[in-house]
Specification:
The protein is mainly α and 262 residues long. The protein is 70% helix and 4% strand. The protein has a domain of 165 residues. The protein has a two-stranded antiparallel ribbon. Helix 2 packs across helix 7. The N and C termini lie far apart (48 Å).
């Protein structure tokens, strides 16, 4: 039997999982920084900034008011340009939230999911601390929670980009939408307060038609916060959020492909 003098090269084996893991690693490394850069470019354009604030960051701003109210024991319902907040603290509402957060801890232990235990425990601690705040301080924190919530919730949405492969958020590509919304919300708010360090005219003082005083005006006029304190608190919160995001990016972005896909 005659054989060819040179055997054909072996056909390389297709390793789809390895390629997907390598692609996922690139997404994790470049996705959040590019989302922040794109959000900043939109923020620098008047029309882009209008779209960014109207359709993305304003929703997170109002949700920030609502979440702050919930954690302080006040029922609240967020809408596009305003959040309806109860005049007084509701103890039944606070008890329901404490029960829900306690159930998260129980569920996490029952299913051996430590992240769920940590989440439930953190929310329990925040709710318990929140309901102990005097009414005057609680109202100030709810007001601060608009832009403050936009910074924190925007960061949380961006961190969801690092959910494990195979999870519902990863499979359905929802994490990409959360990344865009989170980056837009964070950049829109943080840019204002960063510039306000040197230019107080950047602060949106004044009246909002159909709503009343803006949040900065409420905090300075109704709650007596000095302007410098107002600016410093927002900037400090934003910097903390950036540090958290940077740590997550450094950790998840540097993972080996095999670890990412596992």
């Amino acid at each position: 039997m005659l054989r060819p003098p040179v055997l054909p090269e072996e056909t390389p084996v297709w390793d789809g999982e390895a390629r997907e893991a390598a692609l996922e690693r690139k997404f994790r490394r470049f996705g959040p920084p590019l989302a922040l850069l794109l959000a900043k470019l939109f923020e620098l354009s008047p029309f882009g900034h209008f779209l960014q604030r109207t359709f993305l960051s304003m929703m997170i701003h109002e949700l920030g008011h609502a979440v702050s109210a919930w954690l302080l024991g006040y029922p609240a319902f967020p809408m596009l340009w305003v959040t309806s907040i109860a005049e007084s603290r509701s103890w039944p509402w606070a008890a329901c939230l404490l029960g829900a957060f306690g159930f998260l801890v129980y569920l996490g232990r029952a299913t051996e999911r430590r992240w769920l235990v940590a989440l439930g425990s953190a929310l329990l601690a925040l709710e318990l601390l929140g309901v102990l705040q005097p009414a005057e301080r609680a109202r100030a924190l709810i007001t601060f929670g608009g832009d403050g919530g936009a910074l924190v919730l925007g960061t949380v949405l961006m961190l969801l980009f690092y959910v494990p492969p195979g999870s519902p958020l990863h499979r359905g590509a929802l994490r990409w939408g959360f990344l865009v919304i989170g980056a837009a919300s964070f950049v829109d708010v943080f840019s204002v307060w960063w510039r306000a360090r040197k230019d107080r005219d950047e602060i949106p003082f004044g009246l909002i038609e159909g709503v009343g005083l803006s949040d900065p005006s409420k905090l300075t006029e109704d709650h007596g916060w000095p302007v410098a304190t107002l600016v410093n608190r927002y900037v400090a919160l934003g910097v903390v959020c950036l540090v958290v995001l940077a740590v997550a990016w450094a950790y998840f972005g540097s993972q080996k492909s095999e670890e990412t896909s596992s």
